[in-house]
Amino acid sequence: MGFIKKMEIEYSEFEVGREAGKKVQEIDEESVQCVICTDYIKYFAIPETCNHNLICWNCVLKQRLKLNQTACSMCKEESNRVLITTDKTQTIVKWDSRMIEEVTNGIVFSNP
């Protein structure tokens, strides 16, 4: 295979990779992935004490309800309550009358 043909193939592979990279960047800028399961987060689980917001509600519910663990998965700080919300900037401190608390497990749901 000649030098020019090799360069054409490498350039076309570069272009394909660059286009794929653009698509991944677009997804990443709009969405956040859970640090535990890597799914894109629709409902954020935000612990009351540390306010980490990179964990999905599914992982936190499994942790709290199945494993009886109330510590934040990121920093390991104990948290009596966790907020489930679509707004990653929301916290329990910013209490809203539309929030619903499930007292036995310390889960607070934010109504969008």
Helix-strand layout with pairing:
Blueprint: H1 3-30, E1 44-47, H2 57-66, E2 82-85, E3 100-102, E4 107-109
Parallel strand pairs: 2-4
Antiparallel strand pairs: 1-2, 3-4
Descriptive overview:
The chain is of the alpha+beta class and 112 residues long. It folds into two domains: 1-30; 44-109, no CATH class. 34% of the residues lie in helices and 12% in strands. It has two helices and four strands. It has helices spanning 3-30, 57-66; strands at 44-47, 82-85, 100-102, 107-109. Strands 1-2-4-3 form a four-stranded mixed β-sheet, with helices on one face.
| Proportion of residues in helical segments | 25-40%
Unreliable stretches covering 5 or more consecutive residues: none
Largest sheet: 4 strands, mixed
Question: Mean of residue pLDDT?
Answer: 79
Q: How many beta-strand segments?
A: 4
The geometry reads as globular
Keywords:
single chain; 112 residues; alpha+beta; 2 domains; four-stranded mixed beta sheet; 4 strands
Task: Give a brief rundown of this model.
This protein has 112 residues and is α+β, with helices and mostly antiparallel strands. The protein is built from two helices and four strands, in the order αβαβββ. The N and C termini lie far apart (60 Å).
